[in-house]
């Protein structure tokens, strides 16, 4: 079965990008391109943790609300959140009101600060788990990988929360650590070229 579908502009894209009105722009402009900005990386890990058990469409539609509620995912600010902020967020209808996930974001912000101190940046840490080309799986055939399992295990050792292997794998797909655009998708070539020019932080 083909993993691409023809868009109205005559270009083939991953099938999933055609499954909701919000997806084409996200697919074309964000998903699968390499990211080395710590704030964006932290945001994505947080949003993927909220997505656990839900659809990405739900999270994407609420993303601006999440950004407003969590100080644009500035982890240095979120690390200062108190129980009053938890109470505020539990009453914010614009986000997913799940106490455990809200508390996990605050915890993970503190862990992110520790990571920056020990590793130099979140990006430097994350990109250590980029799979070697020969270890990359066929696009969109898996929900975990050896690398996502390894990163999940290490994050948990560092006391991050809601960072299971499936969550981490979705994060790696979106942040360009792997190019999971389907073969024949117009964005696969674009993502490959961006990755070729990208210098992983160290």
Automatic annotation (TrEMBL):
Keywords of this entry: Metal-binding, Zinc
Record: residues binding Zn(2+): 14, 27, 181, 185
Entry keyword annotation includes Transferase: no
Entry annotated with the keyword Cytoplasm: no
Pfam families linked to this entry: Adenine_glyco (PF03352)
InterPro entries membership: Adenine_glyco (IPR005019), DNA-3mA_glycosylase (IPR052891), DNA_glycosylase (IPR011257)
GO biological-process terms attached to the record: base-excision repair
Entry GO MF terms: DNA-3-methyladenine glycosylase activity; metal ion binding
PANTHER family given in the database record: DNA-3-METHYLADENINE GLYCOSYLASE 1, DNA-3-METHYLADENINE GLYCOSYLASE I
Name assigned to this protein: DNA-3-methyladenine glycosylase I
């Amino acid at each position: 079965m083909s993993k691409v579908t023809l868009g109205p502009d005559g270009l083939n894209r991953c099938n999933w990008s055609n499954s909701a009105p919000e997806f084409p722009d996200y697919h074309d402009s964000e998903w699968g391109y390499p990211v080395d900005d710590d704030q964006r990386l932290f945001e994505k890990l947080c949003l993927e943790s909220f997505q656990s058990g839900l659809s990405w469409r739900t999270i994407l539609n609420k993303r601006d609300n999440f950004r407003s509620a969590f100080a644009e995912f500035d982890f240095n600010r979120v690390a200062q959140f108190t129980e009053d902020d938890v109470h505020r967020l539990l009453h914010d209808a614009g986000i997913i009101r799940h106490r455990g996930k809200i508390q996990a974001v605050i915890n993970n912000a503190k862990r992110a600060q520790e990571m920056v101190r020990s590793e130099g940046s979140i990006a430097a840490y994350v990109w250590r788990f980029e799979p070697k080309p020969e270890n990359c799986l066929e696009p969109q055939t898996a929900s975990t990988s050896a690398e996502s399992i390894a990163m999940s295990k290490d994050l948990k050792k560092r006391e991050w929360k809601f960072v299971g292997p499936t969550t981490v794998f979705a994060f790696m797909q979106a942040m360009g650590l792997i190019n999971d655009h389907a073969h024949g998708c117009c964005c696969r070539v674009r993502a490959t070229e961006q990755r070729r020019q990208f210098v992983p932080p160290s």
